[in-house]
């Protein structure tokens, strides 16, 4: 495996075109200045040892030296071997509802944003566990395959919004099925956390939860929203322009369906927690998940990255030595060589 430890040093390469422009401007100025003293061909005869090509050659050499030094500063590295890293943890899949009803603001700032904030805090507390993220509305999609790369998990989490799934609805059953299949053939203990307002529009969630529980996978549910419900904002870009209405012009109220989520958690041998404005309940569930026996997870990683910058420094030094012996005037013994 090959990588650069400090890629930001490559911005220094922008100096090369800048220096090139200065060189061109210098030659233009020099030619105009010499033209004041007479015809260029006559002046050239008065300076028989003057070389036009040598300064350009020396400039190219200096730019090559600069390039080598920049690459050396970026610190090219190669991974010398694969190392097996063992740690204990569980496999955790989070199913996050991204339907429009999750924009309701009975939980501040809104249901979806509050859920994302809580997931981010949970990721910060993971140690050895693998995590994946499923987003669902009318259909379910894998947002993040199961991984121990927590930085990637937070990056993918930040991109989640209600527009990420084109089909509206709340397909909890599809999300559960996709989450269960995403674990693959791993023998680690597994858990699924479903975060939704519980307004299921498919109707197969209970049967799916029962089938998943038979595989030994624990299911937890978090109800986002308050029982009295809240209207669903209609957005135009980042600006709210009103609330969603039904065919009769009445404002639609999105209410939490706690009964369904409680039954799903019960069938999945997990627990149900209702979010409120003080907490989402994800911490309570995570505390319970931590009680699940963790199994050993083995991963292969590149280790012992070796620095290779010294080769580029050596090339730069060699070019510098060569440049030292290249003079701007013509080389006499080369001018005496006339092959034709």
Verbal overview:
With 340 residues, the chain is of the alpha/beta class. The protein is elongated, with a radius of gyration of 33 Å. It is built from eleven helices and 13 strands. The model has no long low-confidence stretch (mean pLDDT 83). The chain folds into two domains: 8-76 and 308-335, no CATH class; 87-298, Rossmann fold (3-Layer(aba) Sandwich), CATH 3.40.50. Strand 9 and strand 10 (239-243) form a beta hairpin. The longest helix has 22 residues, at 53-74.
Q: Could you outline the blueprint of secondary structure elements for this entry?
A:
Elements: E1 2-4, H1 15-35, H2 40-46, H3 53-74, E2 76-89, E3 91-97, H4 111-124, E4 130-136, E5 140-147, H5 150-158, H6 172-182, E6 190-196, H7 205-213, E7 218-223, E8 230-231, E9 233-236, E10 239-243, E11 253-254, H8 258-267, E12 272-274, H9 282-289, E13 295-307, H10 309-324, H11 332-335
Parallel strand pairs: 3-4, 3-6, 6-7, 7-12
Antiparallel strand pairs: 1-2, 2-13, 4-5, 8-11, 9-10
Can I get a quick summary?
With 340 residues, the chain is α/β, with parallel strands linked by helices.
Number of structural domains: 2
CATH topology of the largest domain: Rossmann fold
The helix tally amounts to 11
The ordered H/E elements are: EHHHEEHEEHHEHEEEEEHEHEHH
Shape: elongated
Unreliable sequence segments: none
Compute the separation of the termini in Å.
51 Å
CATH architecture of the largest domain: 3-Layer(aba) Sandwich
Helix content: 25-40%
CATH superfamily of the largest domain: von Willebrand factor, type A domain
């Amino acid at each position: 495996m090959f990588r650069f430890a400090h890629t930001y040093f490559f911005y220094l390469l922008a100096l090369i075109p800048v220096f090139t422009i200065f060189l061109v401007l210098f030659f233009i100025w020099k030619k105009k200045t010499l033209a004041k003293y007479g015809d260029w061909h006559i002046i050239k005869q008065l300076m028989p040892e003057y070389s036009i090509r040598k300064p350009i050659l020396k400039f190219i050499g200096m730019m090559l030296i600069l390039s080598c030094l920049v690459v050396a500063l970026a610190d090219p590295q190669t991974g010398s071997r694969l190392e097996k890293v063992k740690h204990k943890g569980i496999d955790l899949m989070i199913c996050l509802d991204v339907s429009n009803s999750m924009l309701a603001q009975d939980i501040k700032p809104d249901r979806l944003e509050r859920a994302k904030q809580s997931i981010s805090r949970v990721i910060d507390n993971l140690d050895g566990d693998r995590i994946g993220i499923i987003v669902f509305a009318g259909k379910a999609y894998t947002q993040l395959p199961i991984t121990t790369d927590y930085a990637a998990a937070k990056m993918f989490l930040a991109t989640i919004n209600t527009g990420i799934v084109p089909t509206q609805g709340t397909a909890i059953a599809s999300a559960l099925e996709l989450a269960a299949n995403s674990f693959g053939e791993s023998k680690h203990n597994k858990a699924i956390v479903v975060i939704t307002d519980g307004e299921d529009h498919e109707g197969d969630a209970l049967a799916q939860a029962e089938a998943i529980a038979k595989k030994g996978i624990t299911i937890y549910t978090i109800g986002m929203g308050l029982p009295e419900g809240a209207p669903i904002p209609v957005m135009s870009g980042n600006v709210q322009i009103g609330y969603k209405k039904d065919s009769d012009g009445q404002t639609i109220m999105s209410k939490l369906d706690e009964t369904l989520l409680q039954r799903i958690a019960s069938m999945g041998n997990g627990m149900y927690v209702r979010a409120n404005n003080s907490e989402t309940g994800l911490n309570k569930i995570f505390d319970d998940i931590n009680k699940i026996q963790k199994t050993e997870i083995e991963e292969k990683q590149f280790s012992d990255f070796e620095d290779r910058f010294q080769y580029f420094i050596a090339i730069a030094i060699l070019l510098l030595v060569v440049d030292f012996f290249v003079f701007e005037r013509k080389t006499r013994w080369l001018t005496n060589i006339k092959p034709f």
